[in-house]
Predict the 3D structure of the following.
Amino acid sequence: MENVIEIKNLEKKYDNFTLNIPSLEIRKGMITGFIGENGAGKTTTIKAILNIIKNYSGEIRILGNDTEASKEKAKEDIGVVLDEAFFPELLTAKDINSIMVDTFKNWDKELYYKYLKDFQLPVDKEIKTFSKGMLKKLEIITALAHHPKLLILDEPTTGLDPVARREVLDLFQEFMQDENNSIFLSTHITTDLEKIADYITFIEKGKILFTKDINDILDNYAIVKCKKDDFDNIDKDDIVCYFKEKYDIEVLISNKKAFKKKYNFGTIDKISLEELMILMIKGVK
Amino acid sequence: MKGLIKKDLLILKNSLKTFLIVLIIYGCMICMGTLDIFFLPPFISMIVMVSTFNYDNYNKWDFYALTLPNGRKNVVRAKYLTTVLVVAVTMIIALVIGLLFLKKADYLQSLTTCLCTFLGISLFEAILYPLIFKYGVEKARIAIFGLIFGLIIIGGIIIKFADFSFLDNLDFLKNYINYLILIIIFVILFISYKISVILFNKREL
């Protein structure tokens, strides 16, 4: 399967943080959710993919491009939504159209104004008068209006109410109707990913823990709640990580069926992405 | 890059109200005789440009701009081209003010004074921009005050202690002085641009 983003042996050192990604592949035609706690390296990874960080080692390929010049050119086909970085707030939605016409070769003025109308966003008002939700919607439609092939989104649904979030997720799914399109999005709202994502990439403390099919995660991973004595009987290879509660121990396992066959104790609960994320961050490995 | 220049011009258009207030304050100072009329255009050119950096900074525009097909070099280039454009427009305003209010003899002399102010302000911008592109406008803001004091002190020392008698030998330049100042303005901005590109290319955002 073709990849839209490929990272090999990436290392970027900061004073008190190191991003280290031996390998990361984001597949074409898929929605990949990027999860991890604050400060885990999500935004830094996105910056690296977008050729914004400096002084790093390793290779980054985006839409098949790996040279500085070609990666810049590839931005014509990428739509980006960042967490808290956008146009100066003195500008209006109309101003943004006028700037983007001269920025993207494929900027689609009609589509942009259609989105503005669909989302009921004012054309002539300064962005600073927008609510947080309205601003996020504007950022998203600005990222979509030049017909990108790849969307890179950093917290795109944060600040949106449930109705607006649904509208935005529908928009992403509409974008994915074209099988050549792909989305790579980071978010803390893991229920959104359960609705739309095909793959999940998990990052913790600057390291990618895994990239997996979301169905594989939800079908095979599970939480086993058991007592200390039972826990001691579990083979260490069957445990991804565990967390000691007051009375029970919560054990994260990655092969539900095999576990059921092998052991005959504890309650096995279905896991949500949020529970998985919390256990993997707070649990003992 | 055209989009980047347009962005700055649209910011300027939308903040016209603020500039009108500044204009009224300056207008009052001129009427009271505190300021020479020719100080107005160069100062406006400076305030206008520094304000665009402030708006950019508030919404982390530099970061967003680099996700678009711009490239770091063009982000810097656009800022300098907008500066040149603003300097050119405010100079034309200065010329018009001169033509409207002054006699011909006074006019030429005042024009030289005005261009010298432009030179001072361009020098200020030429030092300030690389600092902004290296450190961001927040940290560079401290440098702005440092720069103003620095330039005043250095200027004061030069005027007090330097021997300007050599200028008598350059009397032949008198007729060309305005052109010369114009050329110097654009040369220092060009050198500053080259330095800013190098610094911005190395900056972590």
Q: What stands out?
A: Residues 153 and 159 of chain B are 10 Å apart (CA to CA). DSSP finds nine helices and no strands in chain B. Residues 2-202 of chain B form one domain. The interface with chain A takes residues 2-4, 6-7, 10-11, 14-15, 55-56, 58-61, 63-64, 66-71, 201-205 of chain B (CB under 8 Å).
